[in-house]
Amino acid sequence: MGTDGVPESLSPKYESSFAYYTVHSRLPVILAQTADNLCRRKNDILKKYGQDAADELKFIIGKISKLRYEVQTNKPMLPLEGDGPDVAVWNDELAAQTAASENGEPPKWYTATWLYLECYFYRALNDFVRLAPKLAGLDLFGDQKRTAYNNSYHAVESLLTYLMEVTTGLQKGTEKDIDEIFSEFLQVALWGNKCDLSISSGSENSQKQCVLEQLSHLKPNILADDTAETLSTLRSAMTARSGDAGRVDIVLDNAGFELVTDLCLAEILLAAGLASCVHLHGKAMPWFISDVTKGDFDWTLDTMCATNNLAVSHFGSKWKWRMQEGSWMFKAHSFWTLPYDFSQMRDRALDLYQDLGQADLLFFKGDLNYRKLVGDRNWDPATPFCVSLRGFHPAPLCSLRALKADTVAGLKPGLAEEVSKKEEKWQVSGNWATISFCRDLRP
Ligand SMILES: O=P(O)(O)OC[C@@]1(O)O[C@H](CO)[C@@H](O)[C@@H]1O
Ligand SMILES: [Mn+2]
């Protein structure tokens, strides 16, 4: 515990931690697979970017192998060399951490904080691409993300067929209770977070079964469920505006099946009159393998439009139309791909903090967003969720997350101990989840 009452940051310096396992076993595998993918895709890439990009491709593969060596041998992190509006921020942060360290040395792979080193890892990969101008725009994980969507296509079909039924019912006014629909789609988006590519070190991990059939079976694995408070806050905001629905934001996580589940939630919010517009926040660069960029978002809608399943193509075109008419908006602020936790947002990106403050409700999807909400620290699991936010509160917020990192707050006292008896690796298996809400920071 630090002197400020905030527990220590997670770090690979603790050998039993998931952070250690990540640096020791996951990151090197991700690098080897990324280099391997580039070799295998060489012909396709050169067809798209031109044969004269061959040397640059070789250069990127070389940089990736060098980074793998540096991670494995615990070398210090190096300043970024490429371009990009965020380079100065990254290099200043590296210099600040170097100056603040006991021996005046830069952070190293096995001793830095987990959040910093893992964000740096993905930013460094992007740096290599930025140093190769002929390959500008190449997404090192693009292929894996598209495969993940294609492999979950049957689950996408059944989910969107069901969404069509529900939204048609809502239009006719003969639908089930809105509370029930809201809760159902919240759980769909929650469990959509089980299948990301980073946790499986980039190997195939897509949703094969129909998620709707699994909801009741998965329900006992939701360790904190603030669905009712989330919905009532949304309704109170509307009542305060004499019934007018307002803006809801979804801070997205992964492409593929999870993105479709998040867009279903966005559609339900509008169809049920709980929101008048939804702002979707994605990443400005490829991130943690499967996170959604604007390119992934557009590809998903285009691919949906081109399929011959009625529901899938219907929502593909409807969602494109939503983007045109403005009931949906896609944003990719550079703060989401910086190494900072969200308690630092107000100082580092006031514009984003103020923008989020315009919403009635913010959804934060997934594990990395959760880690950034709670500062990636070693909390006692019974710490109230609002306390773990350490002052971050642009608007009422709800996190939907499958546990894939060893940090959690907001659980009832004793629950963590109970679950650990059922599954030893409960904090990182993705089998358990939380729906955690914070209305305001006052106790
Ligand atoms: O944010 P997401 O996509 O839910 O998860 C990202 C993730 O796979 O990456 C980290 C480990 O590398 C973990 O925190 C987490 O499991
Ligand atoms: Mn992710």
UniProtKB/TrEMBL annotation:
Entry's Gene Ontology molecular function annotations: metal ion binding; protein carboxyl O-methyltransferase activity; pyrophosphatase activity
Matches recorded under PANTHER family: DAMAGE-CONTROL PHOSPHATASE ARMT1
Lineage: superkingdom: Eukaryota
Stated name of the protein: Sugar phosphate phosphatase
Matches recorded under Pfam families: ARMT1-like_dom (PF01937)
Keyword line: Hydrolase, Manganese, Metal-binding, Methyltransferase, Nickel, Transferase
Reactions that this protein is recorded to catalyse: L-glutamyl-[protein] + S-adenosyl-L-methionine = [protein]-L-glutamate 5-O-methyl ester + S-adenosyl-L-homocysteine; beta-D-fructose 1-phosphate + H2O = D-fructose + phosphate; beta-D-fructose 6-phosphate = dihydroxyacetone + D-glyceraldehyde 3-phosphate
Entry text on domains: Subfamily III proteins have a conserved RTxK motif about 40-50 residues from the C-terminus; the threonine may be replaced by serine or cysteine.
Coiled coil: none
SUPFAM superfamilies reported for this sequence: AF1104-like
Function: Metal-dependent phosphatase that shows phosphatase activity against several substrates, including fructose-1-phosphate and fructose-6-phosphate. Its preference for fructose-1-phosphate, a strong glycating agent that causes DNA damage rather than a canonical yeast metabolite, suggests a damage-control function in hexose phosphate metabolism. Has also been shown to have O-methyltransferase activity that methylates glutamate residues of target proteins to form gamma-glutamyl methyl ester residues. Possibly methylates PCNA, suggesting it is involved in the DNA damage response.
Flavoprotein found in the keyword field: no
Location of the Damage-control phosphatase ARMT1-like metal-binding domain: 22-418
Keyword Metal-binding: yes
EC number, as in UniProt: 2.1.1.-, 3.1.3.-
Swiss-Prot/TrEMBL GO biological process terms: intracellular phosphate ion homeostasis; methylation
